[in-house]
Design brief:
2 domains; 17 strands; 21% strand; Rossmann fold; alpha/beta
């Protein structure tokens, strides 16, 4: 963390220049800007760390791990003598807010932007800049879209909730086409949208519609209110109809409160980050990121992370590494044609990406944004993780 602060004091987190050899060294390196919420202002007073020696606050960890993953990707790119210049910016900087960063001279010739947002309100400044300059902006983590449209340079790696719901619906049609399916939801506008999306998909499907029943619960629902809708003679297929993590956690606690029911619970993508949610319960959820910790590449990355940072990498570290290395290599190969080649498989690391244009108006000449349509279904049972697809 101290190294990050010292780096951040140079020019708003300017990191490294990675220069290639031979012909590449004669050309100006392509420039990548990376944003993540590392909260330097809250962690340091001038150059003095002020949060204590024992541990880091939880709110710092996702952005810091994303940064650490980016750092390891830079090490790999350095080893390959990649002709890149990488700028890192703290998206939570008080002295240099996003709007001022995009106006800085060193930011004007950026060829690619990679961002890990944690607030939707932060997206617009960078998205507007990417559209003005025709620069791809990779939104690598959730939240993703910020409600933006009409920007064909805005790229969602973590798809919108509608794309997740469409994938869940097809999954249910494939594996549980005739089962009784119950959606438990809370009151809310987003929850209305989730329910309406399933209803619309049921109406439009060319196949057999699903037998879906929706139950609205209060935030303080009891286990008996959930189990009262379960059938002890059948498999109970349950969908959590909200992104609210507390509701999801309480729902899974209620589902495993009785051993007399056979249950499989389908969660929203937010379930990816909830600990112990699969204890004594089989759950399935969607994610664009499937990090198998037992693959050779994952184990190598974990070892490198442990050596450099004396810890175990979270998924955010994997995401930072993958975004920096994968899209950095694609930028080097395709340069100004990168936007047409974002689904390239030649530098695949952990995940496949299927990035397609999305149009709210089918007659529109330009897409509203680009979106990764590749989703993985992760099955967890008592902490054991397997990929369904």
């Amino acid at each position: 963390m101290r190294e990050l602060k010292k780096t951040g004091l140079i020019i708003c987190c300017l990191l490294f220049v990675l220069k290639g050899s031979t012909q590449d060294s004669l050309a100006r390196p392509l420039k990548i800007a990376v944003f993540a919420p590392v909260y330097l202002d809250s962690a340091f007073a001038d150059d003095t760390y002020k949060l204590g020696k024992n541990n880091l606050p939880k709110y710092l960890l996702p952005g810091l791990d994303f940064y650490n993953g980016v750092m390891l990707a830079i090490d790999s790119l350095n080893a390959e003598q990649a002709s890149l210049e990488v700028l890192f910016f703290d998206s939570k900087s008080v002295e240099s807010p996003l709007q001022s960063i995009v106006n800085q001279p060193e930011f004007q010739d950026v060829s690619l932007i990679i961002a890990s947002f944690n607030m939707r309100s932060e997206i617009k400044s960078l998205a507007d800049f990417s559209l003005e300059k025709n620069i791809p902006l990779i939104s690598a983590t959730y939240p993703n879209d910020g409600g933006l449209i009409a920007n064909p340079f805005f790229v969602l790696i973590n798809p919108t909730i509608v794309t997740h719901l469409e994938a869940i619906y097809k999954f249910m049609q494939r594996y549980y086409p005739t089962e009784n399916i119950t959606v438990f939801r809370k009151k809310g506008t987003l929850e209305d949208m989730i329910q309406n999306t399933f209803s619309d998909l049921n109406k439009k499907t060319p196949g057999l519609p699903l037998n879906i029943k929706t139950i609205e619960l209060t935030d303080s629902f009891t286990s008996s209110q959930v189990t009262g809708y379960l059938d002890s003679a059948k498999l109970n297929v349950i969908i959590c109809g909200t992104l609210n993590e507390n509701f999801g956690t309480n729902l899974t606690k209620a589902l495993r409160s009785s051993n007399s029911y056979r249950v499989i619970a389908m969660g929203m993508p937010t379930w990816d980050g909830i600990k112990d949610i699969s204890k004594d319960l089989e759950i399935v959820y969607t994610t664009p990121y499937n990090y198998s910790r037992t693959s050779k590449l994952s184990m190598k990355f974990t070892d490198n992370y442990r050596v450099k940072f004396a810890g175990r990498p979270s998924d955010m570290a994997f995401k930072g590494f993958e975004a920096m290395y994968h899209f950095g290599k694609l930028l080097l190969k395709y340069n100004k044609q990168l936007i047409q080649n974002l689904s390239g498989k030649e530098f695949r690391l952990f995940n496949d990406f299927d990035i397609r244009p999305v149009r709210s108006d089918k007659n529109s000449k330009f897409p509203d944004y680009l979106e990764n349509k590749k989703l993985y279904f992760i099955r967890k049972t008592d902490g054991r993780i397997t990929s369904v697809n």
